[in-house]
Design brief:
4-stranded antiparallel sheet, Arc Repressor Mutant, subunit A, alpha+beta, single chain, 13 strands
Length: about 300
């Protein structure tokens, strides 16, 4: 006999229909404000401001089981209920914030040109003024709504690091499902290199590795560079710690982007790619296979070159 499934799924239309009412949303928010202590039926009805006890009970009953749990002392939010409130406060569905492009004083890692940073449609975007290199990643409005423009690079950078922490431990940014990493040549990510890219840069781009995180649950794919993907590897953390640096305090802008001088493909069969970190005159090089598994480590001491430090 087959074991029963661990998860019972409900039609998404049915779930969203439960929330298609202002009273039900008000109930969830009222329970959120009880700070986890819950509320009795009368306390909850008073907080929502509905006089009709029967009508209130109808709406509350629709939420019980999925978003609201019933206890001996009253009602409290389930995990799903807390996540709904979290999404509301994140502002993804209720707030709009736009910050026009402004000069960003960290040079483009691909060509060394000037860059701009902007925010709109819940995305932070970094564009190079001298080459087509750009990067964008999702940031909820709640992260930047109280942020001064000059603080945006540092705040957005810290948020980007948290997204990579989730990816590197195996969770999707959108549905929390499992992700599977893979490493491929950067040339397979883009259909063609724009004509205005210098030939030297275009040639070197073909040898740059790119990391793909594919969610096996929702199918979303997130792409990025090797350096951020391996920033929290124990060898990388120890390398920096031994030189008095906490990787969790590093500016993401020293590491994000297509660094054609610090990461490259070493072989195609078998596939091998490497990335180099530099600190205090020393270098650490990690070599990975196509599944992002580290297959080799090399520490070079007292080499020439600057450390990966930059102020944001």
């Amino acid at each position: 006999m087959d074991d029963p499934p661990l998860i019972d799924e409900t039609d998404p239309d049915e779930v969203f229909a439960l929330l298609a009412d202002d009273t039900r949303v008000a109930i969830l928010q009222a329970l959120w404000e009880t700070e986890g202590e819950g509320a009795t039926f009368s306390e909850l009805r008073e907080a929502v401001g509905m006089r009709d006890s029967g009508q209130f009970n109808y709406h509350l009953d629709k939420l019980v089981g999925r978003f609201v749990g019933k206890t001996a002392d009253g009602y409290e939010l389930t995990q799903a209920g807390r996540q709904i409130n979290g999404a509301i406060h994140a502002g993804a569905y209720t707030m709009e914030t736009t910050i026009e492009p402004f000069p960003f004083d960290v040079p483009c890692p691909t060509c060394g040109g000037d860059r701009t940073l902007s925010y709109g449609d819940d995305l932070v975007r970094v564009d190079c003024e001298d080459c087509p290199a750009h990067a964008q990643f999702g940031v909820p409005p709640s992260v930047v709504v109280d942020c001064d423009r000059d603080d945006l690079p540092e705040v957005a950078g810290r948020y980007l690091l948290t997204t990579y922490q989730r990816l590197t431990v195996g969770f999707c940014l959108f549905c929390d499902g499992p992700v599977r990493p893979s490493v491929t040549p950067f040339e397979e990510t883009i259909t063609e290199v724009p004509e205005d890219v210098p030939e030297e840069v275009a040639t070197r781009l073909s040898e740059v590795p790119n990391v793909h995180y594919d969610c096996t649950r929702c199918g979303v794919e997130v792409t990025g560079g090797l350096r951020l993907s391996l920033l929290y590897h124990p060898a990388v953390v120890c390398f920096h710690h031994d030189r008095g640096v906490d990787v969790f305090d590093r500016s993401v802008w020293a590491l994000a982007g297509i660094h054609i001088d610090r990461q490259r493909i070493r072989s195609r069969e078998p596939f091998r790619a490497s990335v180099t970190f530099a600190e205090a005159g020393d270098e650490l090089t990690l070599t990975v296979d196509e599944d992002l598994e580290v297959v080799d480590l090399d520490v070079g001491l007292d080499v020439e070159g600057d450390a990966d430090t930059v102020e944001s």
